[in-house]
Amino acid sequence: MPILTRDEVKRISDPNSNLLLIIEDKVYDVTNWQYKHPGGHLTLRALCGKDATESYYAMHSAKLARTFLKSQPVIGTVEPKMKDADAMTGAFRDLTKAMLESGMYETKYSFYYILVARIFAMFAGVLYLVLCRDEFEAHCAAGMLLGLVWQQAAFIGHDLGHNGISHNRLIDSYLGLFFGNLFTGFSIGWWKRSHNVHHIVTNSIEHDPDIQHLPFFAVNEHFLHSKVFSTWFNHVLPLSNVAHVLVKYQHYLYYPIMAFARFNLYVQSLLHAIQVGVYNTKEYHWNGPLQLWTLVGFHVWMFALTMQIPTVFGRLMFYLLAQNVAGILHIQITLSHFSMPTYNGVTYDDVDNGYVRTQLKTSLDIDCPYWMDWFHGGLQFQVVHHLWPRIPRHNLRLAQDILISFCKEHDLTYHRMGFFKANISVISQLKETSMSTKSFSDIFSDSLNLVG
Description:
single chain; mainly alpha; 22 helices; 4-stranded mixed sheet; two-stranded antiparallel sheet; 8 strands
């Protein structure tokens, strides 16, 4: 078996014909597997030619990881073993192993029973306010309460998407169909495809779909000064004069857009289910018909419930308030990344931009008291979650304490701030980027040239 340098692996790798991953000291050829990968082919393509050790074991259980590797062809080894792994990376591997052995990855099911009971109790309140009360104010309250129900159910869906509850992919996927597709209108299949990429290439300008929001948002000036080819959308992100105008006011538009952001996810979920547009690929598509019909089921029950309200205006307010309040979730998602550093391409090249340092650099934890954990649903521990994505939510606060100690020991920067300060940070970042947009005179001049 040949011995390769890491530079050689990177040089001979090609996502279409020779997709190679380094895991520990072996080089695996996953070219034929990429479109069968349950987590989507884009995660593997992003890591092409890279050391995927930490990200691979972070996203998969030890048993599944070992079983899968035995089924993939090994084309060589890299030597010396862990050549590019510094002392911190070795310590992180040891720490992760110790956390696994201590039971931190084990689910406390009573925690989730209580969460689910609370969600259904809130949903019962929605049904009562819609079906048993005639007042306009009651129907508005029902809409806002339904928004909170969706927010809380999305947190469950997030945990299921990471196989972080039963730790059985099939069980968690079917539960995800209920809590995601049928109950909230978000496709668990679409979410896995998008979110797994986000975890692997967090805040990569070209690869991370969670920061690719033109023409509405640009998280830094790079999106405005050059054409960015998105590997997620498989096309150049739109950078028109309209985009420059919208981004110029993005710090004002942030909250209004987040209030209606769910509609985009409804569309993306349906497009993914019927496999059109960017989702028209040959990749693995788990239980496609059931994904589609559960999404349809959501819109059917939501329409039927809305129509129980006697007035048109009451229906409209109920429906819109539910979407608007649920938009809090989109604020929570973006808080942890919009104001953090970005980069081009993919990291994981050397000790300075390996898995641990990349996740620490690009993610932010939200500091909150334990009694507010219900509101954030685990998203307040984004740094912790990105490093150990399969740890159940109820253990994330303990994992945070462990991470803080680890960062101090290895002189690593750990980013954390309060909820309101994080909001200010995001708005400030958006405002700063808005200053890099074209002036109105340049936009007017471009328009005249286009007409001419």
